[in-house]
Amino acid sequence: MSRYLLSLDQGTTSSRAIAFNIDGSMAASSQQEFPQHFPKPGWVEHHASEIWQSTLTTAQQVIDQLGASADDIAAIGITNQRETTLIWDRATGEPIYPAIVWQDRRTADMCSELKQAGKEPWLQQRTGLLLDPYFSATKVAWILDHVEGARQRAERGELAFGTVDTYLLWQLTRGAVHATDATNASRTLLFNIHQQCWDDELLALFNIPASLLPDVRNSSDDFGSTHESWFGRSIPIGSVIGDQQSALVGQACFETGMAKSTYGTGCFVMMNSGEQALHSEHRLLTTVAYRLNDRVTYALEGSIFMAGATIQWIRDGLQLIAKASDTQLLAEQTGYDNPVYMVPAFAGLGAPYWDPDARGAILGLSRDTGIKEIVTAGLQAVCYQTRDLLEAMKADGVHPARLRVDGGMVVNDWLMQFLADVLGVEIQRPGITETTALGAAVLAGMQVGIYQGLDDISQLWQQQRSFPPQIEVEQQHQLYQGWLDAVRRVCNSQE
Ligand SMILES: Nc1ncnc2c1ncn2[C@@H]1O[C@H](COP(=O)(O)OP(=O)(O)O)[C@@H](O)[C@H]1O
Ligand SMILES: O=P(O)(O)OC[C@H](O)CO
């Protein structure tokens, strides 16, 4: 009998494969970083072969570590960095251009022109997204316009488009399956989230031929099987889901109002809004949380570009600390009354400001300022930005009562307590913080009948520690006002 579920978690900087036992505990894992390519300022590319090879290698290593064979894997789930765009030749599987990564800003002018033409409200209404280079549509258009002959080949039906999940499915099945799920489709700017289909008028706006597009399935569905050449035997692929949505599932946020926040390189807050696609008036994104048995659950999402990346910059750029975990002791020594504020707008500010031209700043420096105040300000900035997102949610009429957290930063207890205090909501840290990988694994398990439904998955979630808010509202207000003042000074176009 098959004992494991294998999750392939293809992220922005590394590929991870994690095998889970049926009770949701981790059985084995393997991770491999791969190169980032920056051919021009503001451009970020990945090589498809490096995405694929790191995924395949880590999957094979996990199966080896378990001393298992393909027969022991009940199903595979795929979860992935979203929006990153690939186009390949259907006959050979060869990409016609490197993957354009979600962080890539090369299509900023195209987005500004469409914005000036007044297209954003219309696009937001259909897709839940905003006009930003972050999403796939303008990246697809760019490839078709810049790779010689690409548009003609696309029109002849010779090319296929996919986000990373779709490309991995194509590779794993050796071209037998060209599909994605509704969560990944909902990040392209081409998918109507209300009607759950590719939208002809959006395709026309971006001048993208429909022949490029993958079939859109449920997040837990039949995605074919791996070709037997990869793991010795074929293994069913039972789920595909974008990584932030997968973390929402891994955190068992299945009820309306439940929310998770992932603190890795960036930070992504996502709140389940049930069957209602909430329209945000405050520049949050409306997105598909998951689609099961053709029933859609929606979410509201806000993203912060620099979370752990700020700590990396403090460590590698400023060289103020030797390792990320040093931040905790320094913050304990500084305490909450830190006059220094850091606004880590290195690449502009994300939600709810969406100011691509804002640049970073450290404010409130005096002769007394030392390393510990600057480091603490870096940690605090992550929490203040989370508060910005929760404020935007509140202004949209919803507010989570508590937040489930995951990602590499959440091991920092000081950070978690400060987060609870600045937000005024309880922070819940689960036993398994690899919730992104877990989400895809359990959805694959549902597809092959290991779990009967979401209730079974909820049972797997366990709290490791809770951080209730402990400071007075007045102090909370004071701290946050200092942040808002700092942001005002770096923003060019605040609402
Ligand atoms: N103890 C810590 N305190 C603060 N930040 C930390 C700590 N440990 C790791 N980090 C940060 O967490 C990030 C790694 O988280 P991870 O979830 O692995 O990121 P990703 O999946 O985006 O690569 C790094 O940016 C690192 O700076
Ligand atoms: O790969 P991550 O974890 O940085 O996540 C990337 C997001 O999916 C981008 O939207």
UniProtKB/TrEMBL annotation:
GO terms for molecular function: ATP binding; glycerol kinase activity. Its EC number is 2.7.1.30. ADP binds at T12, R16, T265, G308, G408, N412. Transmembrane segments: none annotated. InterPro entries: ATPase_NBD (IPR043129), Carb_kinase_FGGY (IPR000577), Carb_kinase_FGGY_CS (IPR018483), FGGY_C (IPR018485), FGGY_N (IPR018484), Glycerol_kin (IPR005999). GO terms for biological process: glycerol catabolic process; glycerol-3-phosphate metabolic process. It holds the Pfam family FGGY_N. Sn-glycerol 3-phosphate binds at T12, R82, E83, Y134, D243. Belongs to the FGGY kinase family. This is Glycerol kinase. The lineage of its organism: Bacteria, Pseudomonadati, Pseudomonadota, Gammaproteobacteria, Oceanospirillales.
